[in-house]
Amino acid sequence: MTPSTIDEPVVGTLADTLLEEMCQVILHNDDVNLADFVARCLMRVFGHTEQLAYKIMLEAHNKGHAIAQVEAETEARLHRDQLQSFGLTATIEKV
């Protein structure tokens, strides 16, 4: 017997994620939340280091917004919603 391959699409795996559009999660500055709280939220939601979280927070504070992460659309929507659940202002944009 010789080995053979079957040409069938892969469903529900990394292939789906690779075909998904990429989005950037944008953190917007607000006048309500304290800097430490915002940085801790970024660390919790994205797993960012403390240094990166503070860099993103400061950019949002100084420029009005900052890109917190670039990722597949499904993850971006989830992370935007998580940031919003902490009372932060966040949006997503397709890249």
Please characterize this protein's 3D structure.
By secondary structure, this protein is α+β, with helices and mostly antiparallel strands. Helix content is 47%, strand content 22%. It has helices at residues 14-19, 35-46, 50-63, 73-85; strands at 22-28, 65-72, 89-94. Strands 2-1-3 form a three-stranded antiparallel beta sheet.
List the helices and strands and how they pair.
Layout: H1 14-19, E1 22-28, H2 35-46, H3 50-63, E2 65-72, H4 73-85, E3 89-94
Antiparallel strand pairs: 1-2, 1-3
Helix pairs in contact: 2-3
In short:
By secondary structure, the protein is α+β, with helices and mostly antiparallel strands. The chain contains four helices and three strands; from the N terminus they run αβααβαβ.
